[in-house]
Structures are given as structure tokens and as C-alpha cells.
Design brief:
Layout lengths: L3 H7 L5 E3 L8 H9 L4 E4 L5 H14 L4 E6 L5 H10 L4 E5 L7 H6 L3 E6 L2 H9 L5 E4 L5 E2 L5 H11 L4 E4 L5 H9 L4 E4 L13 H9 L5 E4 L7 E4 L2 H9 L6 H8 L2 H6 L24 H20 L4
Parallel strand pairs: 1-9, 2-3, 3-4, 4-5, 5-6, 6-8, 8-9
Antiparallel strand pairs: 7-11, 10-11
Helix pairs in contact: 2-3, 8-13
Bound molecules: ligand TUI.
């Protein structure tokens, strides 16, 4: 498979990004993905500025390859972290859960390549207008905070609407998904859930096992009432949240009910009370592999699928 212009422009070997998963995507995972030829991405999530600076510095020690930082725009520390990007010379920033507009001139002037995650054509156009380098079009099959559209419909509409490279995300976990994304017009892919299986991914073993055990309908979306729909693996917490979401509970109480649940899943492995974010592709993720094995597998599988598709011509 040709690595394409995105990989070339970013100085990576393969057009594979690792999703910026809050609480999960740390320097160890990002460096392992970058060392394997993909683009590793550290997630800032809701972490404070010192933690994020520390992870960036750690990643620089673990890899000489390019890596990125994902900024979750709802974070109370987003402003400080936006400046850290510049101070630490981070080459690539991806953003999620909001509009990155207010940081675009700061980052562009510093030569940072900004790649917002967009859930719709409207946000893709906004990103293009404000000077994004590319966009990640993320469909609702993905884990965590999601938009309304599915990858199958979002990616081609974003590709038609803007002139920037498009990276597809949401529901992609193997070579078939990569081939499909390329068919839809994307030039690269971002995978989150598949990297939960990585040896270098520092999550509690209960989290990894939940992903391995998940089937096609293992996930559910909650949080629509507060305007932040989130996909996670069905468990007691998701069921309870889903039940109280549409009672007369106040917004504050609902927020309070969900607070700290991702940490409970990632760090404590609390199967009942934690929030185990994962995409619909969890049903396709069945075994632990190193990041190098995952990326080699993905590329080999994509090559095979694309080769098979070429037989269509005959
Ligand atoms: O950001 C993600 N995935 C995430 S963030 C996260 S932490 C969190 N936890 C609870 C509630 C909210 C966040 C866990 N997973 N993916 C990228 C993504 N961005 N998906 C959708 C969007 C998005 C949504 C709305 C991007 C822009 C947007 O704009 C809305 C606005 O009004 O600005």
C-alpha cells in the first residue's frame, strides 16, 4: 500500500493514527505507535498542564519519530495546554469535543500542524476556513464522545466539502476498514479501540478483557441529554446512567454521577462502576499484540484487501 501524502507530510511511515484516548493514550502508547511507523498521539483529556508536559517530554525520550497531542477542548486546562504545544515544539495537534478556532492562529504561527476531529461537514468547513492542516472525520461508531453521523456517510461528505486531506475514524479496526476508508476518499485512518489491545497500552487488564469479550452490540450511547453523547461498553454504570438520564435529575447531579468513571475503568478496572469507553469495533478486537504487530497486521491486511478488490476489474 502506498503511504500517501499525509504520511509523507507528517514524516511517518504508514497512514495510521492512534486515537487520542483520554486517560489511556499516554507517552508509552504514543511512542510505541510512532516507533512502529504510525502517528502516536498523547491524549491530554482532562489532565492538568504539568501532567501533559511530562508526557510530552517522556515521549521525546522514548521516540525520535513524530508524535501528536490530542486536546480535549472541554478540558478546563485547554488554554494552558494549547500554549504547552508551542513551548514544547509538538509537531501535530489533534482536537476533539469542540471548536479549535480560538487556538488556530497561535498554533499556525508556531508551525504546528493542526488536525481537528470533526463530526460534521459544518465543522469540517470551519476547520478548513481557520487554517487546519487536515481533518479527522470521525463517525459515531467510535468510542467516547461522538457526533451524529456514521463513518460511511460522514467521510465522503467531508471529502466533497473541503479541499484538505481527510483522515477517517470510527469503526475502523482492520485492513478491511482501511480499504473502505480509502474508498470513501480518506487518505489515512485513525484507530482507537484496536490500540486498546496493545501490549504498550497502560489500561487495567479488566478493561482489555472487556474489549476482548465484547461482541458487535456490546456498546451503548449515553449522555445525549447533556449534549455530549458518549459510547461505552454496556455495564452496570451505563445501564444506571441510561435510566436516570431522562428522569427529573438535574444536569449537575447527572454530571456528578458520571464524574471519575473513566478513571475507575482505566486505573481500577471496576467492571460495574467504571465507564469503559470503546467503539463498535470492540467486537473485532480479540487478542493482545504489540503496536508493531498491530500496524504490520493492518498494513498487510489492507494490501490484501485492496489487491482482492482489484479483481473486480476483470
Ligand atoms: O473527542 C472525542 N472523543 C472523546 S473526548 C472524551 S472526554 C469526554 N468525556 C465526556 C464528555 C465529553 C468528552 C472522550 N471521547 N472525539 C472527537 C470528537 N469530537 N467527536 C465528536 C467531536 C466533536 C463534537 C462537537 C467536535 C466538535 C464539536 O463541536 C461542538 C461545538 O459546539 O463546538
Amino acid at each position: 500500500m502506498k503511504r500517501g501524502r499525509i504520511a509523507e507530510m507528517l514524516g511517518i511511515e504508514y497512514p495510521i493514527f492512534q486515537g487520542g484516548m483520554a486517560w489511556i493514550a499516554d507517552a508509552d502508547l504514543a511512542a510505541a505507535v510512532s516507533n512502529a511507523g504510525g502517528l502516536g498521539i498523547i491524549a491530554a483529556g482532562n489532565a492538568d498542564a504539568d501532567y501533559v508536559r511530562g508526557q510530552i517530554r517522556k515521549a521525546k525520550e522514548l521516540t525520535n519519530k513524530p508524535f501528536g497531542l490530542n486536546i480535549m477542548l472541554l478540558s478546563p486546562f485547554a488554554d494552558e495546554i494549547a500554549q504547552i504545544v508551542v513551548d514544547e515544539g509538538v509537531q501535530v495537534v489533534t482536537t476533539g469535543a469542540g471548536n479549535a478556532g480560538k487556538y488556530m492562529s497561535l498554533w499556525n504561527e508556531a508551525g504546528v500542524k493542526v488536525i481537528p476531529v470533526v463530526p460534521s461537514v459544518t465543522f469540517a468547513k470551519m476547520a478548513a476556513r481557520t487554517g487546519a492542516f487536515a481533518v479527522i472525520a470521525e463517525g459515531g461508531e467510535s468510542g467516547g464522545h461522538i457526533g451524529e453521523l456514521a463513518t460511511m456517510t460522514l467521510v465522503p461528505q467531508v471529502c466533497d466539502a473541503i479541499d484538505l486531506p481527510v483522515i477517517a475514524a470510527g469503526g475502523i479496526a482492520d485492513g478491511r476498514g482501511i480499504a473502505a476508508a480509502l474508498a470513501l476518499g480518506a487518505e489515512a485512518v485513525q484507530l482507537g479501540t484496536r490500540f486498546l489491545s496493545a501490549t504498550e497500552c497502560n489500561i487495567h487488564e479488566n478493561y482489555r478483557n472487556k474489549v476482548f469479550k465484547a461482541g458487535d452490540t456490546a456498546t451503548v450511547v449515553t449522555g445525549r441529554r447533556l449534549g455530549h453523547p458518549v459510547r461505552s461498553i454496556k455495564n452496570q454504570f451505563a445501564r444506571e446512567y441510561g435510566k436516570i438520564e431522562y428522569t427529573d435529575i438535574s444536569d449537575e447531579e447527572l454530571d456528578q454521577f458520571a464524574a471519575g468513571r473513566l478513571r475507575m475503568a482505566v486505573v481500577e478496572g471496576d467492571e460495574k462502576n467504571g465507564c469503559f469507553l470503546a467503539g463498535q469495533s470492540a467486537g473485532m478486537v480479540t487478542k493482545e499484540q504489540t503496536c508493531a504487530e498491530i500496524i504490520a497486521d493492518l498494513m498487510q491486511d489492507a494490501d490484501r484487501v485492496i489487491g482482492d478488490l482489484k479483481k473486480w476489474e476483470k
